[in-house]
Design brief:
Layout: H1 3-16, H2 29-36, H3 40-52, E1 56-59, E2 63-66, E3 86-88, H4 92-100, H5 122-135, H6 140-143, H7 150-162, E4 172-176, H8 177-189, E5 195-200, H9 204-212, E6 216-223, E7 227-228, H10 230-239, E8 242-247, H11 261-274, E9 278-281, E10 306-311, E11 322-326, H12 331-341, H13 347-358, H14 362-387, E12 393-395, E13 402-406, H15 413-422, E14 428-429, E15 442-446, H16 453-469
Parallel strand pairs: 5-6, 5-8, 8-9, 9-10
Antiparallel strand pairs: 1-2, 3-6, 4-11, 6-7, 10-11, 12-13, 13-15, 14-15
Length: 470
């Protein structure tokens, strides 16, 4: 056995024995040389061998890490197959019942919709807010009425430019988070009784907004990795009087699916042929696990039909509740809706975020956040593979912080939700994400929180409860 093979085998045994866990960082080449008395070439060869075996992965500018996919690899779920009928909505009471049950901070938050607060630069944001409040002038309360603080809108427009999209600051309306933006977009292009198309499964907040506005929905099949199915969407548009599409193209909640570039271009062409607006809920695009972000749909928007909704809540400042919509041809209508709906978004918070963005620390924070999420995903995947019963399927995401699982047999995740909550564990059961309450044996888990012993114990207990249902 050569020296590099010996080092590779010793490292592989440490991984197999659990000394090195999925997501752990291996010693750097220099550290490994010093610890083992080897040359850099020998260590590099050993790491290359481990990488070829699928045990470790190299991350640019970060080093080598133990990979998640150890042991048995879970297959991904099949494409969803919702009924093609349109649905009147009665989901809010059901969703609120589940959400209200997970507010206890002592509960392990696998069902949470938010990442851990310690992942965000809250102290620095607090200092920006205090400084902004001291500098504010009385006229700011007027100049920052909709569409919002001019400097913040300019800085958001610059980030679009970095993604290849030319968005005018005048087309950006600052809102109370993405949820208000989604409501305003729907109000701008629909009336009560109208029909919108959504993915299946879909984020429950979009269903709640549609219900509040008296809209009906038709659910479009989606692939757990590649998102909304275009052939199925075309059939829906041919068969139903759809007024708008409400989709998450990047790291959809709950599946983590990301629509490929070619499919995204085809989607835009399809919407142009039918002259339909797209309301894109895109709050997770900054949380890509690879080096490159997904293609920005606004870069493909030739005639302003995309209402691109995003927010700082998921990637920077969850408590600030500052979102926006790049509204294209609908900017004037949404601006008027905003004035009549909530008048303005808190001025001091807009100033504070503008100050933070100008300090050039945002991209550094995002790199740190993405690395933390990748590590936490790795650990959760390994624990699910180790403790969930045979027959479990998993949609492994390329961004965001959600893991979508199909559980075996007749597992009822509504019953699992109640049993887990009684043991101090929250989950998000699949029926939350369907107007027709489908996906009864699916569950969404959150990996936006640290890999603690409490989290690991919670996954072990979930695996036990699932096995008992089978």
């Amino acid at each position: 056995m050569t020296l590099y093979e010996d080092l590779a085998d010793r490292t592989a045994r440490q991984i197999a024995d659990g000394v090195l866990r999925p997501g752990d960082r291996l010693p750097s080449v220099r550290q490994a040389c010093q610890a083992n008395g080897l040359s850099p070439i020998t260590v590099t060869q050993a790491y290359a061998l481990l990488e070829s075996r699928g045990l470790i992965e190299a991350r640019p500018r970060s080093g080598y890490f133990v990979r998640a996919r150890l042991g048995r690899a879970l297959p991904e779920p099949a494409m969803s197959a919702p009924g093609r009928r349109s649905s009147a909505l009665q989901v809010s009471d059901f969703i609120f019942e589940i959400l209200d049950s997970v507010r206890d901070p002592a509960v392990v938050p696998l069902g949470s919709s938010f990442p851990a607060p310690e992942l965000f630069p809250l102290d620095r944001l607090g200092r920006c807010l205090a400084a902004a409040a001291r500098r504010m002038k009385p006229q700011d309360t007027l100049t920052d009425l909709p569409p919002g603080h001019p400097e913040l809108r300019r800085l958001i427009a610059l980030r679009y430019l970095g993604q290849g999209a030319r968005v005018s600051p005048d087309d950006i309306i600052v809102t109370h988070g993405a949820m208000e933006a989604l409501n305003l977009c729907l109000q701008a292009v629909t009336r009560p009784g109208d029909l919108i198309a959504v993915e299946s499964p879909t984020f429950y907040a979009g269903l709640q907004a549609a219900e509040r506005l008296g809209l009906k929905v038709v659910e479009v099949p989606s692939h757990p990795r590649e998102g909304v199915n275009l052939a199925a969407l075309e059939q829906v548009l041919d068969a139903h009087p759809v007024r708008a599409c409400l989709f998450m193209l990047n790291y959809a909640n709950p599946t983590g699916a990301c629509v490929p570039d070619d499919s995204r271009r085809a989607l835009m062409a399809l919407l142009e042929r039918h002259d339909l607006p797209l309301i894109e809920d895109d709050v997770y695009a900054e949380l890509h696990h690879g080096e490159q972000p997904p293609l920005c749909s606004k870069a493909l928007d030739r005639d302003g039909r995309v209402m691109h909704v995003s927010s700082f809540s998921k990637c920077l400042a969850p408590g600030f509740r500052i979102g926006w919509v790049a509204a294209g041809r609908y900017a004037d209508a949404i601006r008027r809706q905003k004035l009549s709906f909530s008048l303005a978004t808190p001025v001091a918070l807009q100033h504070a975020l503008a100050d933070y963005l100008k300090q050039a620390g945002y991209d550094r924070h995002l790199r740190t956040l993405r690395a933390a999420l990748r590590t936490q995903l790795t650990a959760l995947v390994a624990d699910v593979e180790a403790h969930f019963p045979a027959g479990t399927r998993m949609a492994e995401p390329e961004g965001g912080y959600f893991l979508w699982l199909e559980l075996p047999g007749d597992c009822d995740t509504l019953a699992l939700h109640r049993e887990a909550l009684a043991r101090g564990i929250s989950i998000a059961p699949g029926p939350m994400f369907s107007a027709q309450r489908e996906f009864r044996n699916f569950v969404r888990l959150n990996f936006g929180h640290p890999d603690t012993e409490a989290r690991r114990a919670a996954v072990r207990e979930l695996g036990r409860l699932i096995a008992l249902q089978g």
